[in-house]
Amino acid sequence: MIGVSEASDIINGIKLKIETEKLDISETVGMILRESITLDRDLPPFDRVMMDGIAIQYDKWEQGQSVFPVEGLQKAGGPKQVMDGSGHCMEVMTGAILPGKTDTVIRYEDIEIQQQEKETVAVIQKSPKAKGQNIHPKGTNRPKGDLVANEGMVLSPAEIGVAATVGKTRLNVSRVPEVAVISTGDELVPISQRPLPHQIRRSNAYTISAALRELHMEAELFHLNDDRSEISKRLDDILKKFELVILSGGVSKGKLDYIPGILEQKGVEKLFHKVRQRPGKPFWFGKSEESVVFALPGNPVSTFSCCYRYVMPWLKKQLGISKRNQLMAQLTVNYTFEKKLTYFLQVKVEINDEGIMKATPVKGKGSSDLANLCKGDGFLELPEDQDHFKAGESYPLFLYRTL
Ligand code: AMP
Ligand code: MG
């Protein structure tokens, strides 16, 4: 039996083929960008008016003029006008292109618009601070051609906005692999069905596929009964079709736990079976030419902790998402676990005033107690070579909830 870090190293040694696909930008937040985004125009692309008010020639004000006949209106979205009369002004709106033959914008708050005989004039009440004020000159944010988002970045709403600005309607992103999520067991019925007294509903496949959704991955769900020939036949098709197969159940010592044996018969090489951990000891992992196979123990908390301790971090790595260091959290209380196993302790996590993550155990009733997961936020990984864990000590944290 191997330890947790060895299991994790073996998994991380396996690469998943990640291809590229082009998607509508509205579908790409959280995905990995597979192209670089450069500016197709200067930013801003024109001398942009930053305040509602009037545009003047500063020289005129300097020469003592304070009343400016209004010659017209330059709206945002209107083509550039050029002021005719020297000594006039143009009314301008925020976001408009600066009219020709003007160089300074004065806000409405600092002028008064008056009706004088036949003309409208603007009377300056507060002297402009400097020539060019309230104008955002063309190209001063960034010049055309500037690289704004690198290949390999995780797309946040910021990059989506930049992509939209440069007119990218579609973006090249990493194509997430096809995944089969398979529950196994004769006792499991579809969740829409009322279970008989000896049956339960299949929850694991939904937990796993919900976790995968966080990575924009869509899973196809399957169920296999504990029947050797059924498993054998259906796994043939599934292994042919899917690059990633995640099973739950059927990997322990039970008489009907056929999964490991059949997987090996199908040419899926066993890379390990059983890890010194609780929960999730019977975890099986293997690989064939076409597929990577995680066969997780069926108890819901085992499935869950294996999913967040191994499957999700590995997938993030394959997709290029995981660049940060391992999260750590401090225990808030002393805790004892004396078995020679790594213990995944369910914890509620709080971030204290100094920004430090504090983890408090939320005691459940073992690996079948999935309802207890709703009370926590993640798992703290307590190493196998230690029995007593003291308040204030930090351990790796695997979160399943955004804090
Ligand atoms: P197994 O790993 O197949 O021996 O299953 C261990 C325990 O987990 C049994 O009590 C199963 O009924 C339960 N179990 C297995 N798969 C699921 C599932 N998909 N949803 C809920 N419970 C499950
Ligand atoms: Mg079973």
From TrEMBL:
Q: Which organism's genome codes for this protein?
A: Fodinibius salicampi
Q: What class of enzyme is it?
A: transferase
| Stored InterPro entries | MoaB/Mog-like_dom_sf (IPR036425), MoaB/Mog_dom (IPR001453), MoCF_biosynth_CS (IPR008284), MoeA-like (IPR038987), MoeA_C_domain_IV (IPR005111), MoeA_C_domain_IV_sf (IPR036688), MoeA_linker/N (IPR005110), MoeA_linker/N_sf (IPR036135)
- EC numbers, comma separated: 2.10.1.1
| Required co-factors | Mg(2+)
Where do the record's region annotations for Disordered lie?
127-147
What the record says about family reads: Belongs to the MoeA family.
What pathway is this protein a component of? Cofactor biosynthesis; molybdopterin biosynthesis
Q: Which UniProt keywords apply?
A: Magnesium, Metal-binding, Molybdenum, Molybdenum cofactor biosynthesis, Transferase
Taxonomic classification, please?
Bacteria, Pseudomonadati, Balneolota, Balneolia, Balneolales
According to its UniProt record, which reaction does this protein catalyse?
adenylyl-molybdopterin + molybdate = Mo-molybdopterin + AMP + H(+)
MoaB/Mog domain span: 180-317
Q: What is this protein called?
A: Molybdopterin molybdenumtransferase
Q: Name one Pfam family in it.
A: MoeA_C
Known role: Catalyzes the insertion of molybdate into adenylated molybdopterin with the concomitant release of AMP.
